[in-house]
Amino acid sequence: MDISRHEQRVLHLLAQGGHILVEKDERGHIVDNSCVTRDGWYWNGCSQELFRKLKRRRLIASTGGGPYRITQLGLKRVRSQANNR
Structural domain boundaries of the chain? Predict the structure, then answer.
């Protein structure tokens, strides 16, 4: 499975302990998302389209209504980077 550079950046951020917060409308549909690093900084590199793509591929998931985090499959797919070794 090929993963784009933008997907790699988001997965790498999530693998280091970040998460994605979502905002839902009254019908329960996701209308906005915010990517948060492990240090609490907001990162605007995760668009709605990219979020949907990661969710559809089951690389991220939410448990118990909490924020979206990386899954085991996502950890297998992400490539290591110099600052993560």
Answer: 5-79
Residue showing tokens 């950046």: 9
- Adjacent-strand bridge partners of 69: 61
Taking every pair of Cα atoms in the chain, the longest distance, rounded to a whole number of angstroms, is 43
Is the whole model's pTM more than 0.85, yes or no? yes
Count CB neighbours of 72 within 10 A: 10
Question: Would you say 67 and 21 are in contact if contact means Cβ atoms under 8 Å apart?
Answer: yes
pLDDT digits (tens, 9 = 90+) for 37-71: 999 999 998 999 999 999 999 999 999 989 999 99
> 80: which 2 tokens?
């290591």
